[in-house]
Amino acid sequence: MPANLKIALLGYGLAGRHFHRPLIEATAGLEITAVVTANPERREQAAGDLPAAAIWDSVESVWAEAADFDLVVVAGANVTHLPYTVGSLEHGLPAVVDKPLAATATDAITIRDAAHAAGKLVFPFQNRRWDSEFLTILENQETIGRIHRFESHFDRFHAVPKGGWRELADPNVSGGLLLDFGAHLVDQGIQLLGPVVSVYAITRSIRVADAADDDMLILLTHVSGAVSYLTGSLLAAFTEPRFNVLGTNGGMLLRAYDTQEEELRAGRTPADATWGIEPLSSVALIRMASPDGATIESKVPFTRGGWGMFYAGVYDSITSNATPPVLLDDAIASLRVLDAARISATSGQTISLDPPASHG
Questions:
Q1: DSSP string, 167-227
Q2: At what angle do helices 78-90 and 105-118 cross, to 10 degrees?
Q3: pLDDT at residue number 245
Q4: Of 61, 148, 186, 284, which is most buried, counting CB atoms within 10 Å of its CB?
């Protein structure tokens, strides 16, 4: 294995250019040596950002030169995730895949079968496991006792649609919030509270009739009896709080959002000394009850965010057989939940999962 793993980056839109490229460049041992995008403007951007990389307009160019690469990063539109990932595996290359791993759990199992046949790893890009506010909950959850309700809100206020494939209602495009924000919210819910046994969901298209869903609610019931109340919207005039976590001994309220996405968009990376350090105003408010019934409050600063840990984990998995940063089966379990949410939103029924959807 070479000192630097050579990477073909498939897609150079928001995910490829602003998420994956800077995270890869900040990770020792990784090097982007080719970018695939058919968009002329993005080809020009890629050439400027990565002057040493080959810029190709077809994935077939990567397959033809597969021996020159050690890893493929699939960062294009959702509809490309299944064919590009399977194609990578068939050409003997492991793959990082932006969320969602696939449109359905069935498609994700197809990817798993291809990975097993090729003997190669697939790494689902669930970067928000390393969000500062979520890490703060994980590190302080025992303080509030057994968590019985997890409220997670991932909201934006984009009253005017931006256009593009994410807002198309065509199911073959795999757009909408359920597969976008929902992929992160469900992943975090299972990470925190464990296996899911039932799902109830509401999805709506508010801004434009008959467009992809832009507002959603997912209610998960976990094996433990705890519930996750997950909401996502593109038409939320008020986007706080991010989390409200209720336990048997108290609760945590986190109003602020992790800022790593904004940092990447602004040109900063995990290589910067202050990466992931949130403003002093970003705190978790912890409220407890004393033995005499009095209310006790304290504030905990946000834990440092760690998106850079994902690609460091990918490198270690490929070169040292370390445990992958996100397991493929975790993404399949989350997609089972999202499949159930889609059925529930259409039927109005609560959907049971047997066996429960569980992370490893």
A1: G---TTT--STTTTHHHHHHHHHHHHH--EEEEEEEEE--SSTTSS--EEEEEEEETTS-E
A2: 20
A3: 98
A4: 186
Per DSSP, the residues of 54-106 read EEES-HHHHHHTGGG-SEEEE-S-HHHHHHHHHHHHHTT--EEEESSSSSSHH
Residue 158 is predicted with a pLDDT of 93
Q: Is the pTM of this model over 0.90?
A: yes
The mean pLDDT of 207-230, rounded to a whole number, is 96
Residue with tokens 């919030």: 177
Contacts of 82 (CB under 8 A, 6+ apart): 102, 103, 107, 110, 111
pLDDT digits (tens, 9 = 90+) for 162-202: 888 888 888 888 889 999 999 999 999 999 999 999 999 99
Same domain, 343 and 300: yes
97 and 199 share a domain? no
Reported as a single tens digit per residue, the pLDDT across 327-353 is: 999 999 999 999 999 999 999 999 999
How far apart are alpha carbons 60 and 331 in whole angstroms? Answer: 27
Cα(349)–Cα(228) distance, integer angstroms: 17
| Domain hosting residue 32, numbered range | 5-125
pLDDT of residue 2: 54
Q: Are 339 and 314 in contact (CB under 8 A)?
A: no
pLDDT for residue 1: 47
- Within 8 A by CB and 6+ apart from 63, the residues are 87, 91
- The position carrying tokens 């990082």 is 96
Q: For a pLDDT cut of 90, what percent of the chain falls above it?
A: 92
Domain stops at, among 125, 146, 170: 125
